[in-house]
Amino acid sequence: EFYCETELEGFQKSKFYQVIDSICKEKGFFPQLIYGQDQSSKRTNLYLSISILDEKKQIVNIYDDGFLTSSTKLVTTDKKGRYMFYRWQDDKEFLDDLLWIKSHLKKL
Predict the structure, then answer these.
(1) Burial label, 52 (beta-carbon count in 10 A; 0-12, 13-18, 19+)
(2) Residue 22's closest CA among 104, 108, 107, 102?
(3) Residue spans of the chain under pLDDT 70
(4) Whole-model pTM over 0.85
(5) Contact between residue 93 and residue 99 where contact means Cβ atoms under 8 Å apart
C-alpha cells in the first residue's frame, strides 16, 4: 500500500496530472484518482486509475470515443507470491491515454 501511495503522490505532482487538473477546473470537471484492486478480477494486482467526472459525479463520456478514464498496473503478484512493482511513468499506453484525455478535455 505504501508503494501505491508513493506512486499516487508522484503522479499528482507530475506535469501530466497538473495540466489535466487545470483543464478540469476550467471546464467544471473533477479528476478522480484511485489506487486499488481491479473489482472485476480475483487477482490481487493493484492499479492506479484516473477518471474525469462531471458535476453529477459520472465519468465523462465522449460520444463515439469512449470514457475519459485510464489505469495502469502498479503491483502484481506471481504464482509463487512474489511481488513485481511498476512505475506509471513506464507505461506508454497509460501516458498515451493521458494525452488523449487532455486533448478531449480541451475540446469540450
Answers:
(1) buried
(2) 102
(3) 39-42
(4) yes
(5) no
